[in-house]
Amino acid sequence: MPSHSTPRTKPVKSTKDGLAIKLFVLDTNVLLHDPMSLFRFEEHDIYLPMIVLEELDNHKKGMTEVARNARQTSRTLDQLSANLVGGIHQGLALKQAGHRESTGKLFFQTEALNANTPLNLPNGKADNQILEVVQCLGQLHKDRTVVLVSKDINMRIKAKALGLEAEDYQNDITLEDGDLLYPGSLSLPQNFWSKNAKSVESWQSGSQTFYRLGGPIVSSFHPNQFVYFESGDEPNLYARVTEIQGKFATLKTLKDHSHNKYAVWGITAKNKEQNFALNLLMDPEIDFVTLTGTAGTGKTLLALAAGLTQVLDDRRYTEIIMTRATVSVGEDIGFLPGTEEEKMGPWMGALDDNLEVLGKTDTSAGEWGRAATNELIRSKVKIKSLNFMRGRTFMNKYVIIDEAQNLTPKQIKTLITRAGPGTKVVCMGNLAQIDTPYLTEGSSGLTYAVDKFKGWPHSGHITLARGERSRLADFASEAL
Fold first, then answer.
1. Residue 281 and residue 303 in contact, taking contact as beta carbons nearer than 8 Å
2. Is 126 in the same domain as 183?
3. In CA terms, which of 66, 112, 168, 296 is 20 to 30 Å from 351?
4. At what angle do helices 50-59 and 65-82 cross, to 10 degrees?
5. Count of domains observed in the chain
């Protein structure tokens, strides 16, 4: 882009079909967060300051997700410029291979902009240089809306303080409000039995009862969603949606894992949500399970108990693979010695705590028997790092992805697509405890997975509501 006096490279397109075409200036962190963000602005134009290209170059080295995204963005820019017709100052058509062509264009800063840094902010800081570019573009293109797009909250606040328009990158947000997340269960309305007695068909198959019902409520059902009805006047119902055909749905009653008869590795469900979760975890027809809930609701314990039963007792899977995002809550303690599994050890405290509980469930085995059981358990649980997951395929494995709320949608996709034939994947996390920069409840990979899989007949989700650790932990979570 030129100076004020010689606007040779000014993008002249400002309207299309009567709609105003905006000019979005992207911060570096948007490209590092989503390399495909260049193609997410529909008919609007995109502008990249020269300092953004410099920062992309600085981030391209290494094996981190940020470095990979920087390299992917650079390759995309190279492909776009390879199809250049005319001068680069005329803009590049935003065409993505295999997708319909975007009507917007991509512009680069090709000349120095003659303007003082706003409010005399320090010149050496990249953020301030981007703010200067946004201010100059607003002066050059008074007929257009110039908007800064940044994942950096402080950057957006500084821009607004200077009178510039600024927005967060919204395309990666699956849900605007975390309360809208699919809970996996649905409470049926009061007087359900009396209102639907004539339209509900029922039959018995083995120890389970099936129901077929119709009506407007079926439109709110999803495959493998749990429905329940609790009333003092009519029989309680706890069932799962097994099939939806048009205006009719088939429900199947659940195994009662709160009863010792259906205990899983000595663990019984403490509430209805845990019972729902165990029904999903123990079903061989369910390949993908997501569990969300606050600390102490039993996510890890239930997943491990179900995994051990199906690995050691049922021989359905050969071993348990457990991984998690290594994001520190406090200060990093530096490099860790040892093998991959030894390096992951300090991050797997929750695994050790739960294995200790599960190792004590067999009270009749004696001390020697329990010690042998613990050794057997640990031989069947493998700890893997996310850094070495690319290119792997897990066959007949029970894969647990812990702390999944700290993963991006791209990382979640990388992990789930590792699943080979006969593998079950369990993703779990607490969306209120996100420690990864630029991730929110709405853009977390866990939220993304829950939303995208809710209509698939071989997946299930449940939100665990009640903490079951101790009365102290329950009171602390409410009072503090």
1. yes
2. no
3. 66
4. 130
5. 3
317 and 247 both lie in a single domain: no
pLDDT at 372: 60
DSSP 322-342: EEE----SS-------SSHHH
Q: Reply yes or no on whether the pLDDT at 386 is more than 80.
A: no
Q: How far apart are CA 388 and CA 321, in angstroms?
A: 13
At 6, the pLDDT band (50, 70, 90 cuts) reads very low
In a domain, 459, yes or no: yes
User: How many percent of the chain have pLDDT more than 70?
Assistant: 78
Where does the pLDDT of residue 33 fall: very low under 50, low under 70, confident under 90, or very high at 90 and above? confident
What are 145's two structure tokens? 């809306």
By the 8 A CB rule, do 208 and 252 touch?
Answer: yes
Q: How many helices (H) does the chain have, and how many strands (E)?
A: 14, 20
Neighbours of 69 (CB within 10 A): 22
Distance CA 77, CA 107 (A): 11
Q: Are residues 447 and 421 in the same domain?
A: yes
- Residue 462: burial class (beta carbons within 10 Å; 0-12, 13-18, 19+): buried
Locus of tokens 């790092």: 385
3-class SS letters over 349-375:
HHHHHHHHHHHCCCCCCHHHHHHHHHH
CATH number for the domain including 188?
A: 2.40.30
Scanning the structure block, which residue is given the tokens 């905006």? 22
Integer Cα distance of 317 and 398 in angstroms:
6
| CA–CA gap between residue 52 and residue 108 (Å, rounded) | 10
* 62: phi then psi, degrees, rounded to nearest 5: 120, 175
pLDDT at 331: 40
- The label of the residue with tokens 């695994």 reads 351
pLDDT in tens, 48-101: 999 999 999 999 888 777 888 899 999 988 888 886 766 777 788 887 655 555
* Among 111-115, 183-187, 343-347, 366-370, the range of highest mean pLDDT: 183-187
Residue 194's Cβ-count burial label (10 Å; 0-12, 13-18, 19+) is exposed
Token code pair at residue 76: 């995309």
Q: Structure tokens of 277?
A: 């979760």
Angle at 436 between CA 431 and CA 438, to 5 degrees: 95
Tens of pLDDT, residue by residue over 166-221, are 999 988 787 776 678 899 999 888 777 667 666 788 888 888 889 898 878 888 89
- 369 pLDDT above the threshold of 70: no
At 105, which CATH number?
Answer: 3.40.50.1010
Can you state the percent helix, strand and coil of the chain, rounding each to 5? Answer: 35, 20, 45
Q: Are residues 360 and 281 in the same domain?
A: yes
At what angle are helices 299-308 and 272-281 packed, to 10 degrees? 40
